[in-house]
Amino acid sequence: MIIIDKKSIPVFAATGLVLACCGQSVNAAQYSIYGKAEVQIANTDKGTMRYAKEGTHIDAPFSRIGVKGEHGLTDSLKVIFKYEVQVKGFEHDDTSDPFTARNTYLGLAGDFGEIVIGRNDTRFKYSEGKVDNFNETQADIAQLLPGQDRLGDTITYSSKSFAGAQLSLTYAPQDDSSNNEAGFAATLIYGDRGLKNKNYYVAISHVDSLNNINASRLVAAWQQSDLQLGAIYQRSESVDGTKSGNGYVLSASYKLDKWQPKVQFASDDSTIRHSTKGTQWTAGVDYLFDKQTTAYLLYTDLDLQQQTDNSLALGLKYKF
């Protein structure tokens, strides 16, 4: 006799519904499951910096799983979608809430480009490209630079590329804005954001009244053989005009066979992210087992004038 816990019935029902939906659409839709599994052992001095707690901890920084795909409607029009969540169950003792929302949207793509509605990285955040050598770690540029936001209830438009240039926009209606007024971000890209098909990337971006900031930034990245250099300049101001200042990021990396040493410097004096201006130095090295698997070691030092913090981390990351 099979005994089923009554608490499990909703889980079985939801699973059955998903399988039924996938079975009905498998011939029409193209989709893929992807994600990132990561484990990190970090020792942090004071826990002042974001994404790192004081002491020695085992974490799974920004581990996630998602599904994305498309469904053709006509020869020139298709539905596109992405549903992505951050997986916290690995590191949290309280598993009652093991997921948090990441980019989740539905939209259309065609000759006009693509337009999606839902939760998404603002095009201001998107403009960073591959400049951040320590993305999704305690040395992420979001530690200091404002505007690195992922917002819900937004409309995102991305044009097709014309002669190497692409325009993209984020719009948040007034009713869904945190500061009760409509906001937008606009980014103009030239070159290759991923530095795969071209060895250069340049972006100009502006955000207005999204998540309580107004800001403009210039981004540039260049790759020659195994050397990669990147830079960001940003001017930021709070919507109420009480805080403003400049931010900078400089990064460099170099591949030596499977090893990739890298360094980064970030600075911001707008006092939007922290109450004082701050600087951060980071150095690290990656060991690239293959395109999917990376081991890394990093050390980062954050100076906020009145307080400082540092963190040493050893991690393993697998993308699928």
From TrEMBL:
<dbReference type="InterPro" id="IPR050298">
    <property type="entry name" value="Gram-neg_bact_OMP"/>
</dbReference>
<dbReference type="InterPro" id="IPR033900">
    <property type="entry name" value="Gram_neg_porin_domain"/>
</dbReference>
<keyword id="KW-0732">Signal</keyword>
<keyword id="KW-0998">Cell outer membrane</keyword>
<comment type="subunit">
    <text>Homotrimer.</text>
</comment>
<keyword id="KW-0813">Transport</keyword>
<keyword id="KW-0812">Transmembrane</keyword>
<dbReference type="InterPro" id="IPR001702">
    <property type="entry name" value="Porin_Gram-ve"/>
</dbReference>
<keyword id="KW-0472">Membrane</keyword>
<dbReference type="InterPro" id="IPR023614">
    <property type="entry name" value="Porin_dom_sf"/>
</dbReference>
<keyword id="KW-0626">Porin</keyword>
<feature type="domain" description="Porin">
    <location>
        <begin position="17"/>
        <end position="303"/>
    </location>
</feature>
<keyword id="KW-1134">Transmembrane beta strand</keyword>
<keyword id="KW-0406">Ion transport</keyword>
<feature type="signal peptide">
    <location>
        <begin position="1"/>
        <end position="28"/>
    </location>
</feature>
<protein>
    <submittedName>
        <fullName>Porin</fullName>
    </submittedName>
</protein>
<dbReference type="Pfam" id="PF13609">
    <property type="entry name" value="Porin_4"/>
</dbReference>
